[in-house]
Amino acid sequence: MATKHHNLSQLNSPLPSAENMRFGIVVAEWNREVTDALLEGAVRTLRSAGCPDINIQIKYVPGTFELPLGAQFFAEYTDVDAVIALGCVIQGDTPHFDFVCQGATQGIMQLQINWNMPIAFGVLTVNDMQQALDRCGGRLGNKGDEAAAAAIQMVKLQIDMDAASPDHEPDRRKVN
Fold it and tell me: How far is CA 147 from CA 38, 44, 46, 74, 163, in A?
C-alpha cells in the first residue's frame, strides 16, 4: 500500500476478532527508536482486535536482515498463527541499504510460502530518519498498525479457507 498522503493507522474496514489468534512479533533492534514505535502500534492493533496479551509473543533480532530467520524461529518453535516482522532500514551512502532491504523482503516472502503461515511485512525502507518517524506514529500513522491488521486479516483468511476445504477438521479458533 502506498503511503503518500495516507495515514497507515486508518484501516479501510473493521478487523476480524483476534480473540483466539496467536501472534509472534519479531523486532529489529537497529533503529530502536523507530522499531519500538512500530511495536507499540502493532500491539495496540492486536489488542484492539481482541487478542489477549498472553497470545502475543515478542522477540528481538539485531537488525532487519535477521528478521526472516527470527520469523522462521517463531514458525518452527512456537504455535503462533502469524508473525509480524518489524524493522527499519534508512538509506545511506552505500549499496548496503539495497542488500538489506532485498534480503529481508525476499526472505519474509519465501518464509510465508514455505511455512504456509502469514508473515506480515512491517519494515520501513526510507530515505531518512524523518520519513521513518512519519511512518512509526507520526503524520503518516504507524506501519506497525498496518502490519498487525494484515496479519489478523490473513489468519482469518486462512481459517476461512481451511474451513471450506473438503478435508476440513474443526479448528480450535472460533473467529467471526
Answer: 9, 11, 10, 16, 24
Terminal-to-terminal C-alpha distance of the chain: 25
Out of 5, 6, 96, 168, pick the active-site residue. 96
Span of 48-52, 94-98, 112-116, 149-153 with lowest mean pLDDT: 94-98
Average pLDDT over residues 158-175: 76
* 38 CB-near residues (< 8 Å, 6+ apart): 27, 86, 87, 88, 122, 124, 136, 142, 143, 144, 147
Residue found by looking up cell 523486532 in the block: 27
Contact between 70 and 107 (Cβ < 8 Å): no
**Cβ(72)–Cβ(110) under 8 Å?**
no
Residue 96 annotated among the catalytic residues of the structure: yes
All three cell numbers of 77, joined, read 518453535
